[in-house]
Amino acid sequence: MTGPGADGVLLIHGAHHGAWVWDDLAPLLDLPHLAVSLPGRVSTATPPAPLRSLTLGDLITAAAADLGATGWDRAVIVGHSLGGAVAAGLAARAPQRAHHLILIAADVPDPGRCALDSWPAGLRWLPRAALALRRGGSQAPLTMPARRARRGLANDLDEAQARRLLSRLVPDTPGFLTSPMPGAAMPPGLPRSYLVTRRDRVHKPRRQAATAARLRAAIIEFDSGHDPMLSQPAAVAAVINQAARQRTG
Fold this sequence. Notes:
single chain; alpha/beta; Rossmann fold; six-stranded parallel β-sheet; 9 helices; 6 strands; about 35% helix; about 15% strand
């Protein structure tokens, strides 16, 4: 007997990005979709949450509320970059609602560990020291200077796409890097796919592949930079649409 297909697609952006990053991809999806706006972004409905205190648990809770509000029984959950930890945490928290987990250039710590723990054991002090030495200390919001963002995020975008991206990046919570992944384990039977971005200058492809192997996710390689939903929206949408059609065993 097979289970039903998905009812919708939940799209979760990564650090410094927002729901807007899915604007080119969303119209290409076959199912209803919701691009969440994680806490900390300016919203006309609610004031932005304080970036200094947000944790991965807070972000997962917010995404779970967004999923609950859709009324969908089952969703394809898509997470990009550090938003992949939110997507994976949501799938672990609500396994009955997850049809397929798709991670794009994602960093997903093991339960109880944080993103900085993915550094080699002898070097983990380096990023922590860099955070602590910033103005405002380790809890100050994360920022990405325009020059670094252009080099790291826009290397496969045309000039118009690059300008649009750079104009919309925002400060973000250090909790993306420093707060531990909540303890729920990934559902063992959940189908999962990982899009490895081969021209990524932010999250190296070899580290992506290692994360995919640890999560036992099927690897799909993209000849793209860090944001393929901007540079190749049709190709990413095709992966999501195929996952949504699959019936669970």
